[in-house]
Amino acid sequence: MYRKKIMPLELSSKYGHFHSSPLSPSDFDAKPMVLLLGQYSVGKTSFIKYMLGRDFPGIRIGPEPTTDRFTAIMHGNTDKVTPGAALCSQHDRPFRGLSPFGNNFLSRLEGVECDSPILRNITLVDTPGILSGQKQNVGRNYDYDAVMKWFAERADLIIIMFDAHKLDISDELKRVIEMMKPHSDKVRVLLNKADAVSTQHLMRVYGALMWNLGKVMMTPEVCRVYMGSFWGAPLQNTEQASLLEQEKFDLFTDISQLPQNAVMRRINELVKRARGVKVHAYIIHYLRKQLPYTWGKREKQRRLIDRLDREFLMCARRYELPRGDFPPLEPFRQALLEIKDLSEFPKLDKKMVREMDKVFSVDIPELLERARH
User: Fold this and answer.
1) Which secondary-structure segment (H or E) carries 297?
2) How many CB atoms lie within 10 A of CB 268?
3) Do the Cβ atoms of 192 and 42 come closer than 8 Å?
4) Terminal CA-to-CA distance of the chain, rounded, Å?
5) What's the mean pLDDT when you consider all of the chain?
6) Do residues 73 and 56 make contact, with C-beta atoms less than 8 angstroms apart?
7) Is the dihedral angle over the CA atoms 253, 255, 256, 258 positive or is it negative?
C-alpha cells in the first residue's frame, strides 16, 4: 500500500528533501525500537546493561562522556559489532535510510548483536551524551539534529534520561526535546539515580524536573516521568525502595507492551506520514501555481518564502486542509531556500491524490480491522 499509493506522491513532490527519506520494507518489519537520550553520564549505557542483564560488545561506562556514537543493540546468537556503513547496507535491518547522512556520521554509528531475552522483541538505541556549554558545537561533523529526527520518527518509545543531581537542560538538549514534540505520545522521561538523594530531596528534584520540562515542552501536561536507579548496585537510600520498585515495574511494563502495540503504532505512524505527504504535495502545488510563467520567477519565489506563514494559511483555506497537518514553518522555509526553481517540480497529479484519499477511506480501515483480529 505504501509503495503503490503513498510513495509515488512523496517522490513527485520531493517530500524527502523537506522531511525524511522514503520508508523501506525493513521499516515496517523491524522490531519495536527504544531510543535513549540524555546528557552525558546520566546512566543511559548503564540502563541498557541493566535491561540486558549483561555487558554488551563495545560497552564503555564512566563519569566523563564515554558514548561518542549511536549504537543499535540488537539480538544475535553471538556477540558481534557491525560498523555503521555495513549496518546501513543490510536489507533486513531498518537503518538503510541513514546512508544519506554520509561517512562522517556512519563512522559514529555501529550495530551490536548479543544474546539477551529482551532483544528478541525490541531493539535498543544508545545515543551520544548531549553536551552542555560550548562543547556541544565541537566535534560534530554531521547533521546531529537531522539524525535525531530520523531516529525519533522511527522509534516506538523515546526515553529521555535525567540525573537526580544534574537537572539543567542545555541548549542542545532543549533543541532535541523540542524536536520530539511531534512524537510526544512516544516520549517518556526517566529520573535516574533517584536513590542517591533522600525522599524529601527527591520530591523537590521531581518538582524541579517537571517545572523545567513544562517550560521546554510548552504544555501544561508533561509526559510520564519515571524514577529509578538502574546500575546493578544496592540502593543507597532504602527509604524509597518500594516506590522505586513500583516505578521500575511500571517502566518495564511500558517497554514490554511495545511488541503487542507495534502493529497499531506502525499504522498510526503511516497515517501521520500519509497526511503529511498529502499536505506537502498541496503546499508545493499551491506555491508553484503562484509563480509567473516567464519573467520574475526568482523574485516571486523569494517573496513567497518570506511570507510563507500567510501562504500556508491561504493554501489551507483553498484546498480545505487541516492546519494541524502543516509542517513547522522555519524548517520548511529553510528547505525551500535550497530549491532553485519551484516551477521545475512536476505538476500535482490528481490521480495520485485520489489514490491517497482511498488510503484514508478504504485501506487504513481495512488494515485496522485486520490488526484487531
Assistant:
1) helix 297-306
2) 15
3) yes
4) 19
5) 85
6) yes
7) positive
Of the pLDDT bands very low, low, confident and very high (cuts 50, 70, 90), residue 190 is very high
Cβ 129 vs Cβ 159: under 8 Å = no
CA angle 93, 97, 102 (to 5 degrees): 115
Strand, coil or helix: what is 162? strand
Cα 24 to its chain centre, rounded Å, is 17
Residue keyed to cell 522483541: 121
User: For residues 216 and 237, what is the distance between their CA atoms, to the nearest angstrom?
Assistant: 30
367's grid cell: 488494515
State the Cα–Cα distance between residues 143 and 153, nearest whole angstrom: 16
**Residue 182's pLDDT band (cuts 50, 70, 90):** confident
| pLDDT-derived band at 332, boundaries 50, 70, 90 | very high
pLDDT in tens, 275-314: 999 999 999 999 999 888 777 788 898 899 999 999 999 9
Residue 6 C-alpha cell reads as 503513498
d(CA 59, CA 66): 9
Burial class (CB in 10 A: 0-12, 13-18, 19+), 371: exposed
319 pLDDT band, cuts 50/70/90, is very high
CA neighbor of 336 nearest in space, from 267, 373, 291, 284 = 284
Q: Examine the pLDDT at 134 and tell me if it is beyond 50.
A: no
Cβ within 8 Å of residue 203, ≥6 positions away: none
Cα–Cα distance measured from residue 368 to residue 370, given in angstroms and rounded to the nearest whole number: 5
Contact 304, 311 (CB under 8 A): yes
- Kindly give the interhelix angle for 329-337 and 308-319, rounded to the nearest 10 degrees: 100
State the sign of the Cα–Cα–Cα–Cα dihedral 45, 48, 53, 54. negative
